Known about the structure:
Elements: E1 4-8, H1 12-24, E2 28-32, H2 35-45, E3 49-53, H3 61-71, E4 76-80, H4 85-93, E5 98-101, H5 106-127, E6 132-134, E7 139-142, E8 147-150, E9 153-154, H6 159-170, E10 176-177, H7 178-186, H8 195-211, E11 218-221, E12 225-228
Parallel strand pairs: 1-2, 1-3, 3-4, 4-5
Antiparallel strand pairs: 6-7, 7-8, 8-9, 10-12, 11-12
Helix pairs in contact: 2-3, 6-7, 6-8
Amino acid sequence: xxxxxxxxxxxxxxxxxxxxxxxxxxxxxxxxxxxxxxxxxxxxxxxxxxxxxxxxxxxxxxxxxxxxxxxxxxxxxxxxxxxxxxxxxxxxxxxxxxxxxxxxxxxxxxxxxxxxxxxxxxxxxxxxxxxxxxxxxxxxxxxxxxxxxxxxxxxxxxxxxxxxxxxxxxxxxxxxxxxxxxxxxxxxxxxxxxxxxxxxxxxxxxxxxxxxxxxxxxxxxxxxxxxxxx
Length: 230
């Protein structure tokens, strides 16, 4: 599955160049032209990495980085045309993972992106077993023990509800069609229609909300299916 990169820059020539080359390299791209849009897209699209220009309208890059670090550990590579070393130092102190000065070599930038993504993946693997998934509101799913907890509360989920939540959390941020949910959770030989998905999702969401309203981040996408917002 390709990594998702949020590109934040207010220069169309730069975003066009980055979008073309990053897409060619196999990445999924999201674009933002100002700081407010960057923060909105960061919450909405759950990127794997952010390329963040320091000089931005509305909210500048340093403030965007500061705000991101309050709730997220998403890797950030700063893009800057400034010559002052202090800007890079402040950005790194705020939690940016690397920086590239404009004008930059696309080959160098791609290499840095790969390196930062590798480090982030290694940190995740080292920090917690791969069988543990986490969500908002203290939601924790252990794939190995098949136990779901919210804070100190253990949820009594059916086998079907657990498998649904597992699939949604594994694909957090992505829309899963009802047909895909039927295929992966109910199985190829299921006799019925997609309304079975809606009923099961309704029961699952009720159990999540009962433990914590914040933990229910499952969103219905009209005419398509469901996604769990990261």
